[in-house]
């Protein structure tokens, strides 16, 4: 929690161990116990804490401001949309809504290559995925972010289906099984590259742009 009077409001610094009194260390196993509610210091015998803590902590007060540890990730959806405490369930929901988009996209967008053609569907669906993927970087709140992730998931599975259909029809029957295996080998390599990029790029927005901007431009090359 951000503690007014203990933390700098202009440039707050994450300090997980600032409550280092012996009594507090025996009471609290991890700093996570302090991320949602303030504690009642009067009930802790011989608590050794900074003077500001006594002035600003109240009994079971709810935390409304937070300071995040940015030593590993400089920026995440958790820090941008404050997905902590009562809102922490939205982290898992973000993954769920993306996979729900994948499921529904396979059913509702999968037939598109038969309706508008293979090449056209690849361009349309690739642009769809890139546009909503880039758009999620600029979502003003988590609800908008989740909606854009849902649409990105729909386009992602549909463009993969369109590419597979287009490629299979261009192969001789004896080569089609090998072609399918080759496609998924490249998909696995792409997943590895994405993980490598995530290791070096610790800002989620920059990472998203690095992944989706090239996808959006290659369809018009």
From TrEMBL:
Residues 26-221 form the Major facilitator superfamily (MFS) profile domain. The keyword Membrane applies. The lineage of its organism: Eukaryota, Metazoa, Ecdysozoa, Arthropoda, Crustacea. The chain crosses the membrane at residues 91-110, 122-142, 148-168, 180-201. Pfam families: Sugar_tr (PF00083). It is a multi-pass membrane protein. This is Major facilitator superfamily (MFS) profile domain-containing protein. Its main location: membrane. Keywords: Membrane, Transmembrane, Transmembrane helix. The keyword Nucleotidyltransferase does not apply. GO terms for cellular component: membrane. GO terms for molecular function: transmembrane transporter activity. It is found in: Membrane.
């Amino acid at each position: 929690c951000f503690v007014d009077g203990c933390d700098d409001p202009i440039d707050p610094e994450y300090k997980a161990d600032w409550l280092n009194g012996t009594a507090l260390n025996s009471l609290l196993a991890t700093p996570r116990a302090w991320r949602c509610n303030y504690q009642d210091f009067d009930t802790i015998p011989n608590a050794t804490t900074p003077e500001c803590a006594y002035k600003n902590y109240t009994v079971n007060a709810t935390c409304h401001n937070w300071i995040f540890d940015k030593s590993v990730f400089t920026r995440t959806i958790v820090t941008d949309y404050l997905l902590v405490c009562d809102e922490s369930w939205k982290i898992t929901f973000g993954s769920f809504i993306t996979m729900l988009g994948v499921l529904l996209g396979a059913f509702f967008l999968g037939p598109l290559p038969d309706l508008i053609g293979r090449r056209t569907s690849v361009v349309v669906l690739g642009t769809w995925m890139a546009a909503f993927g880039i758009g999620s970087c600029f979502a003003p709140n988590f609800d908008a972010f989740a909606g854009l992730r849902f649409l990105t998931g729909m386009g992602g599975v549909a463009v993969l289906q369109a590419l597979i259909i287009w490629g299979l029809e261009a192969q001789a029957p004896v080569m089609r099984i090998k072609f399918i295996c080759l496609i998924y080998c490249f998909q696995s390599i792409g997943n590895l590259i994405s993980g490598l990029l995530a290791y070096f790029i610790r800002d989620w927005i920059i990472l998203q742009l690095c992944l989706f901007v090239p996808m959006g431009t290659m369809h018009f090359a």
